[in-house]
Amino acid sequence: MHQTPTPRPHRDDAEDNFIRSAGAQLLLFAAVAVIGVALLMFVLAGLVGSNAESVSAVDVERNMITISLADEPPQLDSGMGADSISGMVLGHVMEGLITRDAQANLSPGVAERWEINATDATFYLRKNARWSEGEPVTAHDFVFAWRKAADPAQASEYAFLMYYLRHGEAVAAGQLPMESLGVTALDDHTLYVELSRPTAFFDKLVAFQTFYPIREDFYHRTQGRYGADAEDLLYNGRFKITRWIHGASLMMRKNEYYWNADDVRLDAINVGYITRDGHSRFNFFKDNKIAYAMLQSEQLTSAMENRFHIRRYQDGALFFLEFNHRDDRPTRSWHLRRAMQLVTDSVELVNKVVKLPGYLPGRSLFPVYLRGVNRPFREEFPAPDPELDLELALSHIEQAKIELGVDELPPLTLLIGDSPLAKNQAEYFQSVYQQLGLTIKIDAQIFKQRLDKMKRADFDVVMAGWGPDYDDALTFGDLFASWNLNNHGRWQNAEYDSMVAIAQNSIEPDERMAAFATMQRLIYEEAVILPHYERGTSYVTHPQLKGMVRRAVGADPDLRYAYIERETE
Amino acid sequence: MWRYTFKRLIQGLVTVWFIASATFAAMHLVPGDPLASDKAVSPEIRANLEKRYGLNEPVWRQYTIYMGNLARGDFGISFTQKNRLVNDIIREHFPVSATLGLLAVIFAALGGILWGALTALYRNQLPDFIIMFLVILGISVPSFVVAALGQLGLVSLNNLAGVNLLPVGGWGTIAHMLVPSMVLGLSTMAYLTRLMRSSMLEIVNSDFVRTAKAKGLPPPRIFTQHQLRNAVLPVITVLGPAIAAITTGGFVVELVFAIPGLGRYFVEAVQQLDYTVIMGTTVFYGAFLVFMVIAVDIVYGFVDPRVRLE
Predict the structure, then answer these.
(1) Residue A182 above 60 pLDDT?
(2) Which of B 107-126 lie inside 8 A of A, CB atoms?
(3) For A200, what's the count of Cα atoms within 13 Å in the CB-facing half-sphere?
(4) How far apart are CA B277 and CA A490, in angstroms?
(5) pTM beyond 0.90
(6) Which residues pair with B178 in a beta bridge?
């Protein structure tokens, strides 16, 4: 068929007509489409939508604040929970024997007073502590919960906290029945605990969620669904969950049965958004939809431009380079490790590579917020000064070659996570250790696989992190005891082990802190790890939100004491 | 036609079975331990965990158990969301993703047809150039950029207007659905525009249109009955895979706008090595897409009388 001739400079009337009427047709089509889609959306909203009330970050009339969580709580069984999101929610809707006040001091929770000594502890529960349907909280609820946490059939990751109780380890290993666990209810309001060894920080320990109470009859009534939904939980904390739409939102309302309900100044905390994307959460904050948001480095300028009040806190985690000390690894050589230690500058790492607000250069296994005898531990027992000396490092490299019996050092495999920050750091270290003539091969893995490789000792060096389980230096100190399964590098040192034993068994603060100081020194001298940084977080809050507490250990952020400040105009 | 449908359905089931088996194999071949956590657990607890999730059996036995449960519609319990049935996860979150996806597909299809027809009509003139430029942008700019920009734009809009015009995130009302579904449908809309444009241009030069014009048929009728209707056919063919791309691509939009859809579980389950959720969402999505494609093919048979389904 013959082609139409190339377009002429002007069209004739018929074609103009055609185009005009075709254009009109399209317009009609567009109009119908818009109306049709609008109708469809109306129908869909009716079917799928929820009655999303308009939210605002701070609602003075309803005395409610709206916040966002990074993730959906995997589950809210306090004996099982192992993540910080569950911890945060549980910290608001449940309460243990002892809790923390707004100044981070221990204060009475369900227990109004207690006596703890080297062998046992007695807690006297208050008579007016009640569950969210009115029944009193009794000592039996704690006995049931603690036994359940230790029960091997439950397979709780935090069962190890029950080892501090008499027979705890045996019960968790299935060698003894649950009733042997060293906790009994002398009567409805007296809880008697037998300790497996003197535990100086037992009071801090019982503030943790694994020790929260659970009502036995309610637990069995849920038939295996305890903690799965809002109605599958009983609450004894300041708030209770009234609505939980998985993956979307969570509503916590003031628990009128809480023994100190008058002290609860908010009527509701609405978790209105759940998303992992920090940029989105910051957008919600800017749009006045949520009352606080974490800041990432890209958002700092925007936050400053908007004149938001930027705050900081240490969130508790320590990150470090861990060596594999096993016999088949080049990193077993102290000279090699010492050489690497002499060129690792954590200040440069934090300032030039990480560049995130709030991070502190790593100096010690023990982060700055840990308490010593009377003052912060790092004030009473300062960390060793970092030494940087390339020449000395190179001489240690030569010694390492002799020790290992090689002419050239083999390449070292650096195991890291898959985040962009981890990759940046790894590349930085590649260039740093190249000065020593070392080749670093980067092995990036997703979290689960990195853990798996660490457990199988499939690394020379790994960039690892550790967060506190309880508020005592031992949670970091015992990490490198030779018997600790989390000591992935399998470093062994008799002196270190004996220090850990002292810290575990003594109840004298001076003795314990001195033991930690020795541990701190040994970690440095033996170059067991190379501390990188202590993580800090910057965040912004709504100016009317007051009383929010940030913690390194325990439920964070803590909104139990929060309130809305009325505007003064 | 019924025989054709039946044959396709059987083929579809076989495809889904194949998807399930391939995913199962891939999942178990990936190194890593689904039960790993950063706290070392005692061997006793570890054994109990394995028993609870059926990981203590040999792999082939796990496969048969899983396939058996699958045939009965039981996807099991999530590894990471303790106490939550995968069936519940899918049931609660898929409608959200489906709504988002459906709206996105509709925006994409309607928009694609509209803009494509427009550019063909005004070809080589200003509307054509503008639209084609936007189309190139729409195809090349990745979805997470569009989503982030979209949200940022909403924030600025709300700030400028002083009042909350459109919600910046979340889910529940029409206002919540509008921007996310537009963002999600954008790149498909761009692609369909191009498709529609070339399809229209081809038709404009075809015999039957020139015959219709020569016969003096009223222009509106030529345009709708003959041109549009035929040009739409390639768009419908592409719609099947487009639904696929949009449904699975919804993850980014769901993440940015905090929408409680299934995409999040789909992607994160792989990182968490949550076997049951991986299998459940993959098989579910796989089945959904396979049957969507079959449905589109059948619809195509109605729309285009030249195609005889046998």
Answers:
(1) yes
(2) 107, 110, 113-114, 117-118, 121-122, 124
(3) 21
(4) 35
(5) no
(6) none
